[in-house]
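Lab channel / #folding
Pinned by the channel admin:
"Please post every new chain as: sequence first, then the structure tokens as a reply. Keep commentary short and put observations after the output so the thread stays searchable."

First post following the new format, from NK:
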Amino acid sequence: MPEPVLTMHCNINETAFSWAMFLCRLFTGLALVYMALGSLLYWREFLVNTAALGLPYTVGICFGLCGAELLIGLFLLLGWYTRFWAALALAVGCVCGFVFFLGEFNKVWVAFCLLLAAANSVLICLGPGAISLDYKRSQRAAQKIWRGSL
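Reply from TO:
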């Protein structure tokens, strides 16, 4: 007896949903990569801001945050463990923005955090979509969870 095909979402076009999730991941990942590269290109200012906030190990924290933001952006672009990286992207992105704007809660930083939260909450709740490296793994996990209801 063939196994039933599990559809990941109800009453929507799966292709349109997958493209929407791909575009959400693409723009969120590109924004994180852009911010990480901006912090690395202006590493002196980022380093001075890290020191001005009084954080210990300023060089390690500075390059660690930039490297983490770059890797998280790349993993979101690929769609690998999307929910985990989206949750981490929210935290790391807000911390990098806090350091970059020297702890001032200005309009740009608040808007950045809200937009990052909106995009990442969609990725956390709905997952990667079919155009990702993570789709087969998430499909197997969903089949394991909903095994009795099919």
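NK: Residues 3 and 98 are 50 Å apart (CA to CA).
TO: also worth noting, The two ends are 14 Å apart (CA to CA).
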